[in-house]
Amino acid sequence: MLFWRKIAAILTALTVFALVSCESAEEKISRKTASAQNAGSVSLAPDGMAIFRKNCVTCHGANGKLGLNGAKDISVSTLSIEDRVNIITNGKKLMTPFAAVLSPEEIQAVASYTQTLQEPSSNAESK
């Protein structure tokens, strides 16, 4: 019985963590939108990190390494920005296409953000 209580507690904690992660990303977007409106800004560049956290973390993980449902490890990806935009837009294998979900500007922002998840190559570190 104790085992099942521990499993239930772990699952509850994971669920709360997932909800907090998504909520904080949406709050960040709302905060940026509100501050831009207060500043009188007409256009606001999308926040690639917030969009990634809202739409991509479930399979790729926050650091790009999760690999759930066959998701690729973004931290070792050598794809160009154009290839990343294409895959995010049109999907690939099990990955959902986001053309109907995100604007082209949001897709570009996510593609740019995914490049920040890349780890330095081990060859560069050893030299």
Describe the structure.
This protein is mostly helical and 127 residues long. It has a single domain (2-126), classed as Cytochrome Bc1 Complex, Chain D, domain 2 (Orthogonal Bundle). It is 60% helix and 0% strand. It contains 6 helices and no strands. Helix 4 crosses helix 5.
Offer a concise description of the structure.
The chain is mainly alpha-helical and 127 residues long. Helix content is 60%, strand content 0%.
N/C terminus separation? 54 Å
Find the CATH topology. Answer: Cytochrome Bc1 Complex, Chain D, domain 2
Report low-confidence residues grouped into runs of 5 or more: 122-127
For the record, the count of structural domains works out to 1
What's the SSE pattern? HHHHHH
Broad shape: globular
Mean pLDDT: 82
- Quaternary structure state of the chains depicted: single chain
Instruction: Look at the structure and give the CATH class.
Output: Mainly Alpha
Write down the Rg: 17 Å
Beta-strand fraction estimate: under 5%
CATH superfamily: Cytochrome c-like domain
Query: Which structural class should the secondary elements be placed in?
Result: mainly alpha
The tally of helices reads 6
CATH architecture: Orthogonal Bundle
- The overall strand count is 0
